[in-house]
């Protein structure tokens, strides 16, 4: 299933809107990490807003987003560049729900904690911004993040819906950002619309595409700007992990070689395993020696 984002201006150019369909992306993440529903919902929501945020930056600029709450899920980590994301949760096996059956993402993530956004904008060094969690529901937390850390009045909607087999059925989200010159009347209209609109996942499950969602959010007052495809993809490879092993230093690598005779590394983002046999470990040690000489 195609994952994509539609960008638009709304209300005569006074509001910027991003709407994303991320069902396929969230399904892929659930399969890769063998996620239980509440863990899948939390990661899916974070993947969705991260993919949207990455499309608000210039090409090649990289985001690392961490949602660190005190709930059983633990830390959520997502990396995003140009609409391509990858991510994982510390505990994939969480299934919390309310009495009505709705997933309890807030308690699973935790209400005490923070969001950290690390931005690599191709300058001398990355910089980061943080703000506290509001509810652990992800959408409300990022709405607060944009207002406090980015000083942009915003509204975020995120949703992940599951079928009777606890598999992702529909997922997506939107980001509304108020621009200078937006009237109080427009803000009032947006607030009323958000109070009555269906959830993102319900709209997508009903067959809405990204333009349909924008139409709902703006009461038809919008101008389409750009459509971009989104992806879940991990660029890891054996060479990168070899470089990582070398940072351990010669002594530690020699200990691994003498004790285990091999090294196995698992990528947190895609669950691929990379094995280094004794010969490969010795080659890394020799390479470290050659760099010293």
Which terms summarize this structure?
CBS domain Like; 10 helices; 12 strands; Hsp33 domain; elongated; 2 domains; single chain; alpha+beta; 293 residues
Q: What is the element layout, followed by pairings?
A:
Layout: E1 3-10, E2 15-21, H1 23-33, H2 37-54, E3 62-69, E4 76-81, E5 84-89, H3 105-109, E6 113-120, E7 127-132, H4 139-148, E8 154-162, E9 168-178, H5 184-196, H6 200-205, H7 210-218, E10 222-232, H8 238-246, H9 250-259, E11 263-266, E12 273-276, H10 278-292
Parallel strand pairs: 5-10
Antiparallel strand pairs: 1-2, 1-10, 2-9, 3-4, 3-6, 4-5, 6-7, 8-9, 11-12
Structural class: alpha+beta
Q: Indicate the overall shape.
A: elongated
Distance between the termini: 53 Å
Helical residue percent band: 25-40%
CATH class of the largest domain: Alpha Beta
Count of distinct structural domains: 2
Quick rundown:
The protein is of the alpha+beta class. It is built from 10 helices and 12 strands. The chain has a 10-stranded mixed beta sheet with strand order 7-6-3-4-5-10-1-2-9-8, sandwiched between helices. Strands 11-12 form a two-stranded antiparallel sheet.
Description:
Strand 11 and strand 12 (273-276) form a beta hairpin. This protein has helices at 23-33, 37-54, 105-109, 139-148, 184-196, 200-205, 210-218, 238-246, 250-259, 278-292; strands spanning 3-10, 15-21, 62-69, 76-81, 84-89, 113-120, 127-132, 154-162, 168-178, 222-232, 263-266, 273-276. It contains 10 helices and 12 strands. A 10-stranded mixed β-sheet has the order 7-6-3-4-5-10-1-2-9-8, sandwiched between helices. Strands 11-12 form a two-stranded antiparallel ribbon. Helix 1 (23-33) packs across helix 2 and helix 9 (250-259) runs antiparallel to helix 10 (278-292). The protein is of the alpha+beta class and 293 residues long.
